[in-house]
Amino acid sequence: MPRQVDHVSRRRLIAEAVCHLADERGLEGVTLRDVAARAQVSMGAVQRCFRTKEEMLVFALGHVSERVNERVRARLVRSPAQSAGTALGHAAAETSLLREEHRAEARVWLAFVAQAAVSKALAKTLKANYTSLQEAFAHLIAEADEDVDGAVPVDPQLQARTLLALADGLTTHVLIGHLTPQEAHDVLHTHLARLWEPSVPPPEVRVSPSGR
Questions:
Q1: Taking the model in full, what pTM does it have?
Q2: What would the DSSP string read from start to end of the chain?
Q3: Alpha-carbon distance 210 to 152, whole Å?
Q4: How far, in Å, are 59, 79, 97, 106, 119 from residue 178 at the CA level?
Q5: d(CA 179, CA 78)
Q6: Among residues 36, 62, 49, 48, which one has the least CA distance to residue 121?
Q7: C-alpha to C-alpha distance for 138 and 151, rounded to whole angstroms
């Protein structure tokens, strides 16, 4: 049993080392040797925990995802005075990684997103995380929709997908300096405030099979 605990702890230690290196130089600069040095373990210890670099990166991505999801879950623990709409806003803000203390985490997250475009294993992990967040958003949107008297009903899944995409986009815009954190918060707040406003249906957009 002690060996199993040590193994789990070591994997997390290595995942943290991967994240620190990814923050400094991107995933392209992450090598097993550098990870071992940053985690202060031997190369053999890293290889006993992970058979390949990809397996190590997948675990590290899951580690980061769980950390974000834990904060989202913490914000969803609502008191009787907190509405579903308010909880939704808190959860979306946490997902956007807009606060200064989450800037390094945002850099690491986007490094993994970029790598997932060419890694099926990372993409699978990333999609599972997005699905979990989308379901949490959809649940809150459906609950908030019931509380809005006389509002036009919304599609919880569609709005959850929209909100998740917006949150992800705001992470990028703040990270590259296109928006300030306050401007991004304003965008997010405006979107949420208008979620249940009556609106004219958007024109239908047809996309050809070629995507053009």
A1: 0.81
A2: -HHHHHHHHHHHHHHHHHHHHHHHH-GGG--HHHHHHHHT--HHHHHHH-SSHHHHHHHHHHHHHHHHHHHHHHHH---TTS-HHHHHHHHHHHHHT-SGGGHHHHHHHHHHHHHHTS-HHHHHHHHHHHHHHHHHHHHHHHHHHHHSTTPPP--HHHHHHHHHHHHHHHHHHHHTTSS-HHHHHHHHHHHHHTTTS--PPPPP----TT--
A3: 35
A4: 31, 36, 15, 15, 28
A5: 30
A6: 62
A7: 17
Closest by CA to 109, choosing from 74, 65, 164, is 65
CA distances (Å), origin 145, targets 86, 115, 140, 195: 12, 37, 8, 10
pLDDT in tens, the chain (212 residues): 445 547 889 999 999 999 999 999 888 878 999 999 999 999 999 999 999 999 999 999 999 999 988 888 887 776 665 788 888 998 999 999 999 999 999 999 999 999 999 999 999 999 999 999 999 999 999 988 877 665 567 899 999 999 999 999 999 999 999 999 999 999 999 999 888 765 544 445 455 555 55
